[in-house]
Design goal:
single chain, about 100 residues, alpha+beta, Alpha-Beta Plaits, 4-stranded antiparallel sheet, 4 strands, about 30% strand, globular
């Protein structure tokens, strides 16, 4: 079963900090076998009232991989930078991908 990290960036408070984050996060995610599935884009709410602002989804081989990445020394500084520079939510979950 794969793991998915869903971030919803609701507001960017510091654009220059986020530019630094964007320039460095891809290599750290890849080092933990993660890959970006979604980075923003238009969306439509079909059911319910959950308002998304800017969704970002990362796929990892397992929840253990996702947690190792999130808690790693390599991501620590970037994570704290993102948390200071944005307002949003993060949810990690396991599920089956289309290819299983």
């Amino acid at each position: 079963m794969k793991a998915y990290c869903l971030f919803d960036v609701q507001e960017v408070l510091d654009e220059s900090a986020m530019e630094h984050y964007r320039q460095h996060v891809l290599e750290v995610v890849a080092a933990f076998e993660g890959r970006y599935v979604v980075i923003g884009g238009p969306f439509e709410i079909k059911e319910g009232t959950h308002a998304i602002a800017f969704p970002v989804m990362i796929e990892f081989p397992s929840l253990a991989h996702a947690n190792r990445w999130y808690d790693s020394p390599e991501y620590h500084e970037l994570r704290e930078l993102r948390k200071r520079a944005t307002r949003g939510t993060a949810v990690f979950f396991e599920g089956w991908s289309g290819g299983h």
